[in-house]
Write a structure and sequence with these properties.
Blueprint: E1 3-6, E2 11-14, E3 22-27, H1 38-56, E4 60-65, H2 72-81, H3 85-102, H4 118-130, E5 134-136, E6 142-144, H5 160-165, E7 181-186, E8 201-203, H6 205-217, E9 221-227, H7 231-246, E10 251-257, E11 260-262, E12 265-266, H8 277-281, H9 286-294, E13 302-303, H10 306-323, H11 341-349, H12 354-374, H13 376-393, H14 400-405, H15 410-428, H16 432-444, E14 447-452, E15 455-460
Parallel strand pairs: 3-4, 3-9, 9-10, 11-13
Antiparallel strand pairs: 1-2, 5-6, 6-7, 7-8, 11-12, 14-15
Helix pairs in contact: 2-3, 4-6, 6-7, 9-10, 10-12, 11-12, 12-13, 15-16
The structure holds one RNA strand.
RNA sequence: GGCUGCGUGGCAGAGUGGUCAUGCAGCGGACUGCAACUCCGUUAACGCCGGUUCGAUUCCGACCGCAGCCUCCA
């Protein structure tokens, strides 16, 4: 029975979908003005695995991940670059897709964009004004009146008094209350703007998600996810907006993933201590990055370091080594495996405990390696089982050879093969000095040899 | 200052009131011409101080340390 830690109640709860057999999932996506960094990669991978596991568990999942394609940073960046906003956002949407695809992240069912949701956004603001939750200020902005919403603070565990005492925002004259947040921003000269009942302007960040989630999934849906930093104020404000406008609970389960850190500090754009996905993928295979992300529980902090990536690489190499040169039994269904299936399921059912699930897979790998010596059939079965588990976590999605040989071109491969041939000739003649010399040469090229059962295979170090 | 959360062996990282995590690395052994791979075995941990308990790393409390949010952020 699947249990999910709900940030709203701060407890693990049994997951019960609103509609039996169906899951409606919304995740806050990127603001597209720059390349994805490892923190973004974590969100994508985490909710990719959530989606994969829900589907593997038999749910019909509708997965929505929005794109914020209009905001202050986008406008500022476009101006800096001297390019149009549309050209900037289209470019970075393409870059994001490239990174996500590289990491094997399954595309969401829909990726709504803020700029294409204006009618819904404006209609929702109108509703909020009608119901008394929002007001138009003299300067053309529209604000949400926080004091009108009883549950304000319930997600982030705060109340309005606490928020007031911790107030660090410069007071904005147009607001009735410093805690009120903007739903619609009046356009400044030279800024892109949309027509609205309150004059030309553009939406505030929070209202976009409330409008898009309702449009794509309805007023009440199952799971809403995102990074921990969105809990306040973004998700708190979403609740105020959605529940204010619709008069019903908007989300049953809130899921927040932990941060990626560097040297025990949050990786973020503002601190400038981030690595882009592009940079990391130049050095490590995408599945190594994915494996690294899955070694810790999604809610824990994840410290990024070369050492951790190297460990992930070594571990994944062992899996691919086990899968190499063996024909995996097709269509093995892990749920049917009586030994490992229940252990894997128990791990994943426990709030998506991927670290524990990986330990089950390590046992399967060992079983595979042992079976190899005795029974090909058994070994093939375990290989198939490993593949089946891998499909849930998005691992082992490439051929073992492709992973282990890692982007060798044909010329290089031919050269390696020739050297191996030469070494094996020397070995046959018991010319160990020569054989070792050739092996050293290969090692220097970053090639590791493995002599198995009369056959020499190689891989990249 | 307020509110969260965390502190596990050399590193990464699960978990549990009494018995094995797992991975990376290390050590010993088997295999190998030697290595690598693989297998077998193995060392080692639960921030600090109290309390509850027959027994606590696990529950409770204080303390120390770290991180996050309270402003844009995945």
């Amino acid at each position: 029975m699947l249990q999910i830690h709900n940030s709203l109640t701060k407890k693990k709860e049994v997951f019960t979908p609103i509609e039996p057999g169906k899951v409606k999932l919304y995740v806050c996506g990127m603001t597209v003005y720059d390349l994805c960094h490892v923190g973004h990669a974590r969100v994508m991978v985490v909710f990719d695995v959530v989606t994969r596991y829900l589907r593997a568990s038999g749910y019909d999942v509708t997965y929505i991940r929005n794109i914020t394609d209009i905001d202050d940073k986008i406008i500022a960046r476009a101006n800096e670059n001297g390019e149009s906003i549309q050209s900037l956002t289209e470019r970075f949407i393409a870059e994001m897709h490239q990174d996500a695809d590289a990491m094997g992240v399954v595309r969401p069912d829909q990726e709504p964009k803020a700029t294409e949701s204006m009618a819904d956004i404006i209609a929702m603001i109108e509703t909020l004004i009608e119901k008394g939750f929002a007001y138009a200020a003299d300067n053309g902005d529209v604000y949400y009146d926080v004091s009108e919403f009883d549950g304000y603070g319930k997600l982030s565990g705060r109340n309005i008094e606490e928020l007031r005492s911790g107030e660090r925002v410069a007071v904005n004259e147009a607001k009735n209350d410093p805690l009120d947040f903007v739903l619609w921003k009046a356009a400044k000269p030279e800024e892109p703007a949309w027509d609205s009942p309150w004059g030309n302007g553009r939406p505030g960040w929070h209202i976009e998600c409330s409008a898009m989630s309702a449009t794509c999934l309805g007023e009440h849906f199952d799971i809403h996810g995102g990074g921990q930093d969105l809990q306040f104020p973004h998700h708190e404000n979403e609740i105020a907006q959605s529940e204010g406008a619709h008069g019903c609970q908007s989300v049953n389960y809130w899921m927040h993933n932990g941060f990626v850190r560097i040297d025990d500090e949050k990786m973020s754009k503002s601190l400038g201590n981030f690595f882009t996905v592009r940079e990391v993928l130049a050095q490590y295979s995408p599945e190594v990055v994915r494996y690294f992300i899955l070694t810790s529980h999604y809610r824990s902090p994840l410290n990024y370091s070369d050492e951790s990536l190297e460990q992930a690489k070594s571990a994944l190499t062992r899996y691919y080594t086990a899968l190499r040169d063996i024909e995996a039994t097709q269509d093995v269904v892990w749920q049917n495996d009586e030994e490992f299936g229940p252990r894997f399921q128990e791990a994943m059912d426990d709030d998506f405990n991927t670290a524990l699930a990986l330990s089950v897979m390590a046992d399967v790998r060992q079983a595979l390696n042992k079976a190899r010596e005795q029974s090909n059939e058994q070994a093939s079965y375990f290989a198939g089982l490993l593949q089946s588990f891998g499909d849930v976590l998005g691992l082992f999605q490439q051929a073992a050879e492709a992973f282990l040989l890692g982007g060798q071109d044909d010329d290089e491969s031919a050269k390696v093969e020739a050297l191996i041939q030469a070494r094996n000739t020397a070995r046959a003649e018991k010319d160990w000095a020569k054989a070792d010399q050739v092996r050293d040469e290969l090692n220097a090229m970053g090639i590791v040899l493995e002599d198995n059962a009369g056959k020499t295979t190689w891989r990249k170090a």
